[in-house]
Amino acid sequence: MNAARAGLALILAIAAAGAGARERAADDGGAAQRARSDRDAEAATAAYFERIRAQPPQLRALLQAMPKGGDLHSHLSGAVYAEDYLRWAGEDGLCLLRENAHLAEPPCAAPARATVAEAARSDLPLYGRAIDAMSVRGYERGGGDPLLPVHQRFFSAFDRFRPVSRRRVADMLAAVRAIAAGENTQYLEIMHLPSAARDVLDGLELPDDSDDFAAMAAALQPRLAPALARARAELDADEARAAALLGCAGAAPAAGCTIELRYQAPATRTHAPARTFATMAFAFALAEADPRFVGVNLLGPEHHPRALRDYALHMRMLAFFKQRHPRTKLSLHAGELSAELAPPRDLRDHIGQAVAVAGAERIGHGVAIAGEDGADALLRRMARQRIAVEINLSSNAAILGVAGAAHPLALYRAAGVPVVLSTDDQGVLRSDLSGEYLRAALDQGLDYRALKRIARDSLQYAFLPGASLWQGEAGGARVAACAAADASSRDDAAQPPAPACAAFLRGSDKARAQWRLERELARFERAPRLPASVR
């Protein structure tokens, strides 16, 4: 009897093994078939892209529909369009000065002033001049004040809408999320410093000529804890109101509710050294205390005399804080310069110092790379360390006068340095991320597969916490837990990932975002296309 049972058990085991092998073979065959289908869909999309390359309106429509992952370089106040600022200014009862179309507090007594609401209704020339004052609208066609260089017009725009931006943070957050949803961008890293930073800065009595960073940091320490608590409460309130404006808790939430938002805490490079140091102290402490802040940045016109004078000092300050906060990520505006704005001596080492001294994990702009001492070695280092460059084509064209073949995007790509496309200040520049992808296609010659890689890299090099979905480069082999999972399914509910993959995704914000992008790219590549225009 025992022998019979043993024989039966052996037969059943062999049958089960055979069934398992057949299931694995079927799974492998299904995976191979899905992979072929994915490649075919990508190839068809790439071919369609080339057919419409010479038709910018059709190409723009395609790129707007394309899932673009994340925008990693965006200043909150500069991301909002002038029309929104003017609408909020009208609601707040602000005035426009007829002399220069700048915003002013009431009273709005005629004839020198008009209410913003009145201008929007019945004085379109004044309203239009207000939009021009808050943006660089029309600069490529010669619009705007011919005596005011476009880079000055750009930076002065922030002063023009500051009376509104400083008190409308929640509305701004809702606005940028709505814009991102409308062009199929799923993740934003926004540069934003809560107003609670002033609790650290006001009444500051630190010496501007000290190199004793430890003593300066110790003097600031008593101010940080209450300022951080206020900053977190401030952001809690702003995010809650933004969610309410989008109806995120209602029966019909706006598409912007699906946008994942994180922040970088910036310091400003044009202040006196002690104030810049204190802002860095607050920024690093905030990034460590609040997981919504995933990094620190340094912003302001890099060609400003004080920024040029103190550049090396700022890099040493950042290195000091980076040593104290080693887990805090650092993205730095560096090399946002051209020969029009700075002499050659100032184009020779800014990116190199940001990488070698400050320890930046990403570089914003990086336009002056070709003028760096040892540019070849620096490019090799950036490629080896996977230090991504945030490319802002519209911004570089407007502020620096660098576009087309003069732009170093091709140099970075040839050197193997990761690049991502970003908006910088879409509201001021009158652009958006789809427009940046369009510029990359038309002005830089990038094809569909190159843009798809950039979309994937925007999440690969995002400061989102957690492990990547990819073992190496984005778009290559996935991690073992998700290697066999079907990321191209059109229906998440019908075909959720296998338990091991689902567990991996639950443990990583970055991998979840990447998984979502892969699903959206698969749907996009299988979508029907309009026929190419006949010419």
From TrEMBL:
What single Pfam family name could you report for this chain, choosing any that match?
Answer: A_deaminase
What are the EC numbers? 3.5.4.4
Q: Name one GO biological process term.
A: adenosine catabolic process
The residues covered by the Adenosine deaminase domain are 225-465
Q: Alphabetically list the UniProt keywords.
A: Hydrolase, Metal-binding, Signal, Zinc
What is one term from the GO cellular component aspect held by the record? cytosol
- Signal peptide region: 1-21
Q: Which Gene3D superfamilies match?
A: Metal-dependent hydrolases (3.20.20.140)
The family database entries (InterPro entries) matched by this protein are listed as: A_deaminase_dom (IPR001365), Ado/ade_deaminase (IPR006330), Metal_Hydrolase (IPR032466)
* Top-level lineage group: Bacteria
Q: Which family does it belong to?
A: Belongs to the metallo-dependent hydrolases superfamily. Adenosine and AMP deaminases family.
Q: What is this protein called?
A: adenosine deaminase
